[in-house]
Design goal:
single chain, about 120 residues, alpha+beta, 4-stranded antiparallel β-sheet, two-stranded antiparallel ribbon, 5 helices, about 20% helix
């Protein structure tokens, strides 16, 4: 997933309603519409610009582990100077506290550091 950042940070409503931006023609946000949703990718926004660590009923995994500010962009700077604009969100069916997100600094070829996520299998 990749969102273009075409507005200043003041346009917080755009990010609070991210599900509708992604769904385009659907009247309900992705996070509200499916408890089994997993969204990972380039949001081009920080947690602060999103309005917090949740988006509808989805929760940001890194934020739940106290790592919501781990730099994912740009790769040309040391991580301490970067910003976290890539996110891993999980829906209500998953426990963000049991999920993990890793920033893969060894992966090259992009202006973003790659992120990977894992969630535990659901029990029947």
């Amino acid at each position: 997933m990749h969102l273009d950042r075409d507005a200043p940070v003041a346009d917080r409503d755009r990010f609070r309603d991210l599900g509708k931006v992604l769904a385009r023609d659907r009247p309900i946000s992705l996070c509200e519409g499916d408890e089994y949703i997993v969204i990972i990718g380039d949001f081009n926004t920080t947690i602060n610009s999103m309005g917090g660590s949740t988006l509808g009923s989805c929760t940001d995994v890194a934020s739940m582990h106290g790592a919501g500010a781990g730099a994912t962009w740009p790769t040309i700077l040391p991580p301490i100077m970067g910003v976290a604009i890539d996110r891993f969100l999980v829906g209500r069916a998953y426990s963000p506290a049991e999920a993990t997100m890793h920033i893969q600094r060894s992966v090259t070829g992009s202006d973003h550091w790659a992120i990977t996520g894992s969630i535990p299998a659901l029990s029947d």
